[in-house]
Design brief:
Number of strands: 8
Largest sheet: 8 strands, mixed
Shape: globular
Distance between the termini: 28 Å
Radius of gyration: 16 Å
Helix content: 10-25%
């Protein structure tokens, strides 16, 4: 994570330092907004993944695709599943072992996420997980869909993490 580090998330910074991190990130998002495809900009500015639970991860190595389904929301705002579909992912540069561990751990939640453009101009989505773990996904295209749900808890698929062709892309 570039901005929302574990120290920031755990409250190790002063209130002033914490607020400066928040301001710096949003200033950065504003500075790259013109380079972000519409759905990536929407992810960065309108989709709250805080406390999301990983419901499903699918990896298609041959097609360089990654699918992550998250249960998001709270009892005040309501719940929804966010399906994040990344294409053009250099999977050999992505920590899939860590993602698999995080997906299989029912206690894992997304604490914070960041959207960015790396030095090579590739899109980037970073996750800070609780109780542990981080992930960075670089990609060339992205699709987002959301489905309303009635609650936070719902049985997850047996194999939360799977690899193979993704037919219902």
């Amino acid at each position: 994570m570039e901005y929302f580090t574990r120290s920031w998330a755990w409250g190790d910074l002063t209130p002033e330092e914490s607020e400066e991190v928040r301001r710096a990130y949003w200033s950065h998002v504003e500075s790259i907004a013109g380079r972000l495809p519409r759905e990536v900009a929407e992810l960065a500015t309108r989709v709250n993944l805080h406390d999301a639970i990983i419901r499903c991860v699918r990896v298609d190595r041959r097609a360089a695709r990654l699918w992550i389904e998250l249960r998001c929301g709270d009892c005040q705002a309501g719940y929804f599943d966010a399906v994040l579909r990344y294409s053009g992912v250099p999977l050999d540069e992505t920590d899939l072992a860590s993602l698999g561990e995080r997906a299989r751990d029912p206690e894992t939640e997304v604490l914070y996420d960041e959207v960015d453009v790396d030095g090579d101009g590739r899109l980037c989505h970073r996750f800070l997980f609780g109780p542990e773990g981080e992930l960075e996904i670089r990609f060339t295209s992205f699709a987002l869909s959301r489905r309303k749900k009635d609650g936070r808890i719902e049985p997850r698929p047996e194999d939360v993490y799977s690899e193979g062709p993704i037919d219902d892309w």
